[in-house]
Amino acid sequence: MEQMRKELLALQEQCAALEPDTGTRNAWDTAILDYAHRFVDGLPEGKAYDTGLSKGDKLLERPVPEDPQPVEEVLDFYLRSVDEPGLNPASGGHLGYIPGGGIYAAALGDYIAAVGNRYAGIYYGSPGAVQMEHALIRWMADLFSFGVQAGGTLCSGGSIANLVAICAARDNRELRPAQYEKAVIYLTDQVHHCIDKALRIAGLEYACVRRIPMDALDQMRVDALAQQVQKDKEDGWIPWLVVASAGTTDTGAIDPLEAIGDLCRRAGMWFHVDAAYGGFFVLTEEGRQKLRGLDMADSLVIDPHKGLFLPYGLGAVLVKDQRHLLRTNYYLANYMQDAYRQEMPSSPADLSPELTRHFRALRLWLPLQLMGLRPFRAALEEKLKLGQYAAEQLGKLPGVALRNPPRLSVVCFRLVADDDALSDQRNLALVDHIKQDGKVFLSSTVIDGRVYVRMAILSFRTHLDTVDYALDQIRLFLAGAENAATGSK
Ligand SMILES: Cc1ncc(COP(=O)(O)O)c(C=O)c1O
Which of 174, 198, 386, 455 can bridge 163 by disulfide, Cβ–Cβ 3.0-4.6 Å? Predict the structure, then answer.
């Protein structure tokens, strides 16, 4: 026994480094905060995309060391391997895909959450962490007038939030596997691909997906939807789910939510809206008008790591009736019995597939408390106006055709040429040209078989000067092409 005690004390001494003393913590804090501040302060002058040679490959060669490495060397290696190459999503010049942002206060929220390591899965473990999530879900549910029965959960992002919603829709309808092949899902070609993925993961790969035609504004045609639903009913199918988009990724289009909601109610279908990108525009007057009908959804996805500019890692799913999430996710296990011995508010673990989870509410709650909602509203309004401004300016350029007037803050356009193939090449060349300069970053997409360029304005760091810079780059590219065509230099 004495020997055992000696060995234990020796091991205790060896693992003491896992609890660094105040001096070491201070040294790390200083170095890491210094790094973070240099990073943020350097953003205005830095690139949104770095095509440099370093691609992070050195990470594969670097061993996991047995002994500690100096913090400065580790940070320097990190800078060169991770923060320099590729896309910088923290840059205001990020105008591709759907930009996030990374507001600083959210990082501080993550920091405290990790240091305290509150167990945010079950009320019994950390009533405060759980109530913070409930308070945020309540706030979001109220934003969309979801009513008192509403519930929801914070997820890692929009894809998982959509998956949680699809599973709730499946279970609420009590669909049995034998019925899957008769169940019909209605959506458009512009729905985010995470919906197709969610359907497959939810076991619904062989359900019938009807792609409803769109109008000239890339919105679902409700007349076509109504006709299809009617026909499906007559033919013995089970019209089950409509997935609408409130801000598509490609063009920012918003499906006619009120009309779809109305149809779903009449036909007894579940109405799901993917508002991962567009949802938080509801905080602006213009957005509120454009998003009318969201309150009719049975389930709704909104992403704070898009529309509230948080660092990646926060999506949310809301359901009209919390029981719909409980139906899918609630389980009791023997080893959890203490957590459920008395009546308590519901727990995130009962509303989502996760048990142990990151205390992710704090990364949203802290910024909202420290800064208030006002600057968020202003930034969202600014993004809408920047989208309109960019579209107006692009519309004036010869040889540029807008896909349609932007509904939100994604501007989708195409450089036109004599034939489609040439035009496709020029649009891809424009994206490459802009990437080489790197100060701003645009992405391309394919709609109806044609290449389009997208300017997606959502970062809180994107302002008028950023959009002007992007427009100048497009003008430069057009002038270069013009000169090449006329043979001048
Ligand atoms: C409309 C829409 N839905 C869902 C997603 C998927 O969200 P995430 O990337 O957070 O998983 C995206 C991502 O851009 C999106 O734009």
Answer: 198
